[in-house]
Amino acid sequence: MKNIIQESVQASIQVKKSILLDDEFLQRIEEAVNSILLAFQQGKRIYFCGNGGSAADAQHLAAEFSGRFYKNRRALPAEALHCNTSYLTAVANDFGYDEIYARIVEGILEPGDVLIGLSTSGNSPNIVKAFESARLRSITTIGFTGRKGGQLAALSDLLFNVPSDDTPRIQESHIMVGHIICQLVEAKFFA
Length: 191
Fold this sequence. Notes:
Elements: H1 2-20, H2 23-41, E1 46-50, H3 53-66, E2 78-80, H4 85-94, H5 100-108, E3 114-118, H6 125-136, E4 140-145, H7 152-155, E5 158-161, H8 167-189
Helix pairs in contact: 1-8, 2-8, 3-8, 5-6
């Protein structure tokens, strides 16, 4: 059992080392910070979407912005799109699960908002459709995926394709990148 534990920790470290040494990946983090900062400065909002563990991560990151990260400060307008279960189940029942995020993007997001989608494969149909809807509305899209990026690669203004094919390692890095973005946005917005 100890070997499995050590292998898992080492695998997580290795993925993060790969990110650390990838200057283009690090540059995209800076670009995401600037995009989100600009949206907040213009009175816009940031929205998150995901499925399963990625939905939990989306909600976690939204809470870091709307609650607090390091600073006691006013709330920033951030929300995870899956938190209204009545909406979610109605749209899934009436239109299909693939439509749950696209319809709410159409209904509440505005040009200049930012949509962050988390999908380890990059191929989750409901996230893909949400990004397609966002593109039609001049909404900035930021994809958090695994190595290949899937369909979200072509639909993302910025793509964080974590250099791994292992879902747990990808999700761990999604949270790390999200935390870094939140830390930097908070520091700059409330400087």
